[in-house]
Each structure stands twice: as C-alpha cells, then as structure tokens.
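Consider the tokenized backbone below.
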C-alpha cells in the first residue's frame, strides 16, 4: 500500500468521506447528528492500493500543540489488512513533523473496532471536547507525541 498526501478536494477523498459519513449514520441509527462537512483546513493522507484510494484520514490544527485526527476511514473490502493502523502511524508522523506534542480524536461509542484500534495504538480516553460536548455518543481520545529536538 502507498500512503500519499491528497487535497480535501480530491474526488477520491470526497468519495471516501461521503462513504464514511454514510456508514456512521447507518451505524448510529441517526442518533449522532454528525454533519457531512469536512473542515477546509484538514490535510489528508490516502491509502492507495492498485492506484485507487481505499482509505483516508486527515489532520487539522486544534491549537499550537495539538493536532486532531479527522475522517479516518477504510473501505469495507479492505478492512482487516492493517491499512488503518498504517494510515494512523503516517498521520502521527505528519503531526510530529508539524511540531504537535499531542494528537486527539473523536469517534462514536458505537464503533468498538475504531476504539480498539486507537487504544491499541496508545490513545487514552479524554473528556469530550469542542463541538462534541453534549453528544452522548461521542468518545474522545488523545496521545502524546515525541517533541522535536
């Protein structure tokens, strides 16, 4: 698998984000109320297999020290191959190179596979933050990153 940077306007990224949002709505039975929008300041990485983007994840700035993961998604046919784990490691490297000392994310309580991935990669639960406050289906996690010397 190749991991490459793609703009948020890339048609394959847009298709993956749309699929991710659709799957979230189906998984949560419409309870969560997540929006379809992806912030304009998200830097995306795509997991590419045989020339086709089959996974995506984004990183945006929350504050000077903190990056936030956004829109992590792997097409169902490609799950179970370690793609999400590789993509997460690449996003953490991107965050490290950007000088962040911490990376955080929000996911749904109804997504045990996602929670398992994040916790197995060293993410720890944190209080719900930002736009997710008040959403009973939100679960937030964070991880400390090494600091650039």
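A designed sequence for it:
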């Amino acid at each position: 698998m190749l991991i490459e940077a793609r703009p948020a306007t890339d048609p394959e990224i847009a298709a993956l984000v749309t699929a991710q949002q659709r799957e979230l709505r189906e998984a949560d039975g419409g309870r969560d109320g997540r929006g379809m929008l992806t912030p304009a300041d998200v830097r995306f990485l795509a997991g590419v297999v045989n020339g086709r983007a089959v996974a995506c994840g984004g990183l945006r700035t929350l504050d000077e020290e903190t990056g936030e993961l956004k829109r992590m998604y792997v097409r169902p046919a490609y799950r179970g191959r370690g793609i999400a784990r590789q993509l997460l490691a690449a996003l953490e490297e991107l965050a490290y190179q950007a000088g962040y000392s911490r990376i955080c994310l929000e996911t749904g309580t109804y997504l045990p596979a996602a929670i398992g991935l994040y916790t197995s990669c060293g993410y720890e639960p944190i209080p719900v933050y930002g736009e997710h406050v008040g959403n009973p289906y939100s679960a937030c996690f964070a991880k400390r990153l090494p600091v650039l010397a």
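The two ends are 30 Å apart (CA to CA).
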